[in-house]
Amino acid sequence: MTRWPYELVATDRVHVDGIVERLGPSDRARLDVAGLPERERFLVGRSAILTAVSRLVGEPLDALTVDAVCTECGGHHGAPVVFGAPTPVHVSLAHGSDRAFAVAAYHPIGVDAEPRNTSAARLTAIRDVTGVRGLDPLGRWTAIEAILKADGRGLRVDPRQVLVGHRRGRVGDRGIRYRLRRHRILHGHAVVVAWPDQEGGAGGNAGGNSGRAASRSHASNNASSEASANPAANRRKSSIDAAP
Ligand SMILES: CC(C)(COP(=O)(O)OP(=O)(O)OC[C@H]1O[C@@H](n2cnc3c(N)ncnc32)[C@H](O)[C@@H]1OP(=O)(O)O)[C@@H](O)C(=O)NCCC(=O)NCCS
Question: What is the distance between the alpha carbons of residues 59 and 106, in angstroms, rounded to a whole number?
Fold first, then answer.
């Protein structure tokens, strides 16, 4: 393993033989209704996740499967979970412009990626959503999304509630501090990885998305009780995605 406490895989193709057999029931249902470009993107992401876990645990991925069930509505989306590893693992995924970025770790983890050549309109939309006019909106936004993925609630939390520094951040309503690793340019993307800060008091496996470790069954992948849908935050995120 690297000196960072996770494995990161960036790829633009499927490297896993028989990838469809490695999908859980929710992922298969999602694949069944996916159009061609979405199907390709989805499978590249799943391949990246499984490869990252296989490298982390140092074993072939024969026993691994991946699946995602929304903790909010039970739908075929949400944070991915990998089953079958010898030790419980956590994973996170981000889709870049031309490739997937996946991370795997033994603790909650989140990753986000944005193309470095993001348009001025999108940068303006990001500044509006985060409410911060400072430099490096891309760095701020990728850190916020990485933390919210590690937290497990994603944009059900208002991004303005995420406090971000250069190396650390936290979500306002929880006592967990997150470490941040900024891969400034990776395949033309700004990539940020977030994980609970073991030195941060309330950090560690007590919080974050630890409830989604691989050893858990599909049935026990229960909802985050205090998290409620945040339509306002999702609307603001949509304004970013709609920017040319
Ligand atoms: C995840 C999220 C923060 C970022 O999405 P984005 O910027 O559009 O896309 P990215 O490429 O960066 O990330 C997408 C990946 O995040 C992961 N993801 C989705 N929801 C997640 C969550 N709650 N926690 C952690 N990761 C999540 C998935 O792996 C997804 O890729 P996949 O669909 O191929 O598996 C945002 O989509 C989100 O918050 N979604 C959940 C909101 C929610 O729960 N709403 C209630 C629905 S009923």
Answer: 15
Token couple for 80? 């991915």
Within the chain, strands assigned E span 7-11, 65-68, 80-83, 90-95, 100-105, 110-115, 162-164, 168-171, 177-186, 189-196
pLDDT, tens only, 70-91: 999 999 999 999 999 999 999 9
**Domains of the chain by start residue, with CATH:** 7-242 (3.90.470.20)
Helix axes 231-242, 120-130, angle to 10 degrees: 160
68 lines ligand 1 (CB under 6 A): yes
C-alpha to C-alpha distance for 32 and 164, rounded to whole angstroms:
39
- Establish whether residue 39 lines the binding site of ligand 1, counting it when its CB lies within 6 angstroms of any ligand atom: no
Q: Find the 121 Cα to ligand 1 centroid distance in Å.
A: 22
Neighbours of 23 (CB within 10 A): 20
pLDDT tens for each residue of 175-198: 899 999 999 889 999 999 999 998
78 lines ligand 1 (CB under 6 A): yes
Report how far residue 79's alpha carbon sits from residue 75's, in angstroms, rounded to the nearest whole number. 11
Q: What pTM was estimated for this model as a whole?
A: 0.89
